[in-house]
Every structure is written in C-alpha cells, then in structure tokens.
Specification:
seven-stranded parallel β-sheet, three-stranded antiparallel β-sheet, 10 helices
Length: 258
C-alpha cells in the first residue's frame, strides 16, 4: 500500500502540540520529515498555533508557551485586536433595546459587551464572564445576572454543573457565544468546561449568534459544543473557506462578514 497517509491539518497540529508536551523545542525540518509535508506547510501550522496562543514561534521551529498560556484570556486579548473589535461592534448593533441575552466568556464576547456598554443599550444579560458582567454593570439601563459555578481564574469565567444549572432556569431572546473552532459540521471548544456552558445557553435562547474571528475557521477542537445547525448567525472578520461556506449554507446558518 506504500507509505502511511499523511495526517490532516487538524491532526497534524494536534500532534505538534503533543510533541511540545514531551520536549521544549521542535524544529520545522524535523516536523516536515515526520509528517511528509513541506517546510512551508509546517510554518503555516506553527503560525496558526502561535496565533491561537498555543505555542511560541522560535528560530527554526517552536517552543511551548509559558504555563497556562494556551487558554489564558489575557494572552488571547492581546491577539487579533482589530478583528475582534469589528466583530464585537457589528454584533452589538444587532441587539434591540430591552432584549434578554446570554453572553458567554471569551475575548470576542467581551468586545461585544464593551460595545453594548458604549452604546448604553438597555438589556438584561445573563453571563458566566466576570468582565462581561463588569462592563454591562456600568450601564444604568442594563440588568446583569452572573451565573453560579466554579471560577476558572485564567479565563475570568464560571463553569461547572452549578453554572449549567443556573443557566437552565432562564429563557432569553438570544445568546452570543464565542468558540475556539468552527468547521463545516460543528462548533467546538478548547477550554475545558466552556462547552457545557455554551450548550446550556444555546438551549435557553430563542436565537443564537456565534462570534468568531477567521483564525477559528475550518478547525475542530477536542470538546464538541454543538452541531453547526444549532447556530443562527455567524459574525466574523473574513469570508470563510469553501468547505466552511458550504457547511454554513447546508445548515441554514446566516453569515455576516465585517
């Protein structure tokens, strides 16, 4: 049968991350030989992983990030600032005064809340995100409910069974969610515990809006959140590739590129 089939991009990147758990540095040349791909392909993989804060680029290869950096909110907030601002501003413009919302935790949903606060939009917002609660808590016309749960300190977010149970008590007009990955079939998440909170918000909401920058397109992380068909609208900063665009159309998901 010849040589073993080359792994797909997502699998290859996952294996690169596994290599960095076993050793402090990986070299582009070694990875290219291992996966039977060109060095340029590996450079693109490393660029994508670095953009998500999962590695640090280094001369000729990559190193593991500082401890906890993979899922740390502050690290993500320093990346793709303009893109997240555009997404947040466009999504905030969709909210009608007086609506009830659920807003989950993440760098892009914080930008969404920031623009709601700047506009002074009167809403009732239920959230598991400390920064979202603080931002909207400064709007006199807004009412903020912070759900229960266990604090995930690096994310400034509440997760766990208590968070899910408290969200299940409500029914709202819409939820605004982020995610670490979206492909033609599924929304998925890299932060352990975020997936269950997002599912609870989806179940409690009349409509759903996914806020993701283009670095999340065409990827799948280890925790499945929901089928793409559960999303009503995707707001993003760049047009998706052919596969994701086809998936959005097949599942009836509206798309807004800002």
């Amino acid at each position: 049968m010849g040589s073993e089939a080359r792994p797909a991009k997502a699998e290859r990147q996952a294996q690169i991350l596994m290599e960095l758990k076993l050793r402090p540095h990986v070299r582009i040349a070694d990875l290219a030989a291992r996966f039977s791909v060109t060095p340029e392909t590996i450079r693109r993989d490393l660029g994508a992983l670095d953009g998500r804060g999962q590695i640090r680029r280094a001369y000729g290869g990559a190193t593991a990030p500082y401890p906890g950096a993979r899922h740390d909110l502050e690290a993500r907030q320093e990346r793709r600032i303009d893109e997240r601002a555009r997404i947040g501003r466009a999504a905030a413009a969709l909210v009608r005064p007086g609506e009830t919302l659920m807003i989950d935790a993440g760098a892009t949903t914080i930008e969404f809340a920031r623009y709601l606060a700047i506009a002074g939009t009167p809403v009732t917002a239920i959230t598991n995100c400390l920064q979202v609660a603080q931002l909207l808590g400064g709007v006199p016309e807004a009412e903020v409910v912070l759900c229960g749960g266990r604090l995930l300190a690096g994310e400034g977010a509440l997760i766990g069974p208590e968070a899910v149970e408290s969200l299940q008590r409500y029914r709202v007009d819409a939820c605004y969610l982020g995610a670490s990955a979206v492909d033609a079939e599924m929304v998925s998440e890299a932060v352990r515990g975020f997936d269950a909170v997002k599912r609870a918000m989806l179940a409690a909401s009349g409509r759903s809006v996914l806020l993701v920058d283009s670095s999340k397109h065409g990827r799948r992380d280890f925790a499945a959140v929901a089928p793409l068909s559960k999303i009503g609208l995707v707001v993003t900063d760049a047009a998706p590739d052919e596969a994701l665009a086809r998936g959005l159309a097949q599942h009836g998901v509206a798309l807004r590129v800002v």
